[in-house]
Specification:
single chain; alpha+beta; 6-stranded mixed beta sheet; 8 strands; about 45% helix
Length: about 200
Amino acid sequence: ENDVVRDATSAEGRHLGAALAEVCGDLARAIAADGEGARKLLTVRLTGASSRAAARSLARSVVESNLTKAAFFGADPNWGRVVAAMGARASELGWPLSPAVLSVRLQGTRVFEAGTPLSYDVDGLRALLRADEVAIDVDLGLGEHGATAWGCDLSYDYVRINADYAAVLVDSPEGPVRLDARLDSKTPELKSQALIQALR
């Protein structure tokens, strides 16, 4: 029953825009956290990019990297994988990226700064990385643009869930898709499900 907002630049328009952005951000976080078999939500907050497009793409490159996702599943403070993911994307798209001005923090702990790996309490940081949410803060030191990206870790369950469904359904010689009755390649969970269905 509010008045219609007709001007996005008005106080009401800016308020509505901020509210929509907040809701969409919460939904994006929820989708990332609810990944199949996900154990951890990864939040990449990237600053210092040369353009908005670069900020968004480089932040996403970290949460899209299987090596980075696997490292955080194992609570491994492997900042090198974070930098490598961004470096590969920057190289692919022809964007500048200089380790000499780049800095990385994991769970608030500085691990890399201005081209230099920093010393830190490895066991203490590993303990912090076991949390349900992992914060990865990157400053590229190249400009004024920033972005946030969300993703999830790469767990054993993710691989199992996404391997099992494909292993169960196969193409038959006649054309239609059917269940593969052979159990030699199935996980214990699928074997128990098949046994329960048979006993019924």
